[in-house]
Amino acid sequence: MADEPPDTSRRGLRVLVVDDNRDAADSFAALLQLLGHRTTVAYDGPEALRAAAAEPPDCAFLDISLPGMDGYELARRLRADPGLGRVKLVAHSSYSDARHTERAAAAGFDFRLTKGADPAELEGLLTMLQKIMDLAETTEQLARQNVALADQTKELLREVKEDLREVRQDVKELKDEIREIRDQKDPPAAKDG
Predict the structure, then answer these.
(1) pLDDT tens per residue, the chain (193 residues)?
(2) CA distance 93 to 116
(3) Domains along the chain with CATH numbers
(4) Using CA atoms, how far apart are residues 13 and 141, in angstroms rounded to an integer?
(5) SS3 assignment for 124-170
(6) What is the pTM of this model?
(7) CA distance 75 to 73
(8) Around Cβ 12, how many Cβ atoms within 10 Å?
(9) Cβ atoms within 10 A of the Cβ of 74, count?
(10) Any bridge partners for residue 17, and if so which?
(11) How many CA atoms lie within 13 A of 17 on its CB side?
(12) What is the pLDDT of residue 102?
């Protein structure tokens, strides 16, 4: 019987909130915590990069209008870090025009959420992100199981081949014994010279 895939559903996401408006960042993080998520807050790009490297989040809500390094640049730098490849990036901004949409996509954002959006929209996005994370984790676990099964299959095949070699050797020895017995019963006729 095949093993059932393990339940990978987690309670809450690890969320990085990045906004230079401290009140906005802290309030948004508090809302996310009320919704059951674990949050880290950063108030600028360099701090966000350090926080993400220290504990990779599942997703990051990035303000676009950050001083020094805007949200687009921050997104590009997060995308460039191989250890952060699975982080889902959300452009969390008051911008909603077509130019922002294009720039956000080019910078590597996965989603956009306008600041002050309906809480149901936020919850829907978080639910979808949770499902994406759960599916990714399940996929990785199934991939590891497939590798283990492939290794087991290779080992079994090696054992079957070894057993087959032994059976062939046994059959050869039996044939030789049968030939010897026949030769003893019916010795070959002497050739006349």
Answers:
(1) 445 444 444 578 999 999 999 999 999 999 999 999 999 999 999 999 999 999 999 999 999 999 999 999 999 999 999 999 889 999 998 887 889 899 999 999 999 998 988 888 999 999 999 998 888 888 888 989 998 888 898 998 898 899 889 888 888 888 888 888 888 877 666 555 5
(2) 9
(3) 14-132 (3.40.50.2300)
(4) 19
(5) HHHHHHHHHHHHHHHHHHHHHHHHHHHHHHHHHHHHHHHHHHHHHHH
(6) 0.70
(7) 5
(8) 15
(9) 27
(10) 41, 61
(11) 23
(12) 94
CA–CA separation, 36 and 3 (whole Å): 30
Q: What is the DSSP string of the chain?
A: -PPPPPP---SS-EEEEE-SSHHHHHHHHHHHHHTT-EEEEESSHHHHHHHHHHS--SEEEE-S--SSS-HHHHHHHHHH-GGGTTPEEEEEES--SHHHHHHHHHHT-SEEEETT--HHHHHHHHHHHHHHHHHHHHHHHHHHHHHHHHHHHHHHHHHHHHHHHHHHHHHHHHHHHHHHHHHHHSPPPPPP-
Which tokens is 43 given?
A: 């108030």
Residue 37's identity, in one-letter code, is H
Q: Which residue carries 């807050």 as its tokens?
A: 41
Please, how many CA atoms are within 13 Å of residue 100, restricted to the half-sphere of its CB?
17
